[in-house]
Amino acid sequence: GENVEQHPSTLSVQEGDSAVIKCTYSDSASNYFPWYKQELGKRPQLIIDIRSNVGEKKDQRIAVTLNKTAKHFSLHITETQPEDSAVYFCAASRDMDSSYKLIFGSGTRLLVRP
Amino acid sequence: EADIYQTPRYLVIGTGKKITLECSQTMGHDKMYWYQQDPGMELHLIHYSYGVNSTEKGDLSSESTVSRIRTEHFPLTLESARPSHTSQYLCASNPSWGGTEAFFGQGTRLTVV
Predict the structure, then answer these.
(1) Beta carbons of B104 and A106 less than 8 Å apart
(2) Contact B66, B55 (CB under 8 A)
(3) How many Cβ pairs within 8 Å bridge chains A and B?
(4) Beta bridge partners of B92
(5) What is the pLDDT along chain A (114 residues), one digit of tens a residue?
């Protein structure tokens, strides 16, 4: 079946450093790639997403890049802050496909050390 | 307010009891999901529905069952709860068309004693 692999499973960085989380997807027809952040005790929430017609998208300190040929996409967080500490999930889906489900990666626990 | 609601938030129940976890969304989404998640860990898909009267089992084998009689409602039932069912259960939904952002409920933390 279709799957999304996510690495690393845990990531510890010093405050102010950058963090990069990588995901690889198997379904070449996937065209929508969201990233979710789940803080301790809370529900996952969308922080950024990218569609396959775009190679990069930025929102302040967060950016996502997509390489369709290699079927991988990455989340980049610059100038990390303690409040960035959370579990991050990538996902892949086919937009405009009524029967296709969203497939999540296994998650990355990010710890930002003050 | 458009959102996705889960009840109860917390449930402690004895072994062998039948339970139903409720999930409702007011966004008109066709797709709904149930995930099992231990704290801070992977989201394991246990059930999926892409519309009324459609349900599929997810990647993680589960003894629970679901129904989708109405678009907005996707309850999960455990006929006989066991301690191994202790976990957090998250419900989510997203639209089929024009954008696929998924919204999650607050979750139900189930403890079976």
Answers:
(1) no
(2) yes
(3) 57
(4) B33, B104
(5) 689 999 999 999 999 999 999 999 999 989 999 999 999 999 999 999 999 888 999 999 999 999 999 999 999 999 999 999 999 999 998 876 666 788 899 999 999 999
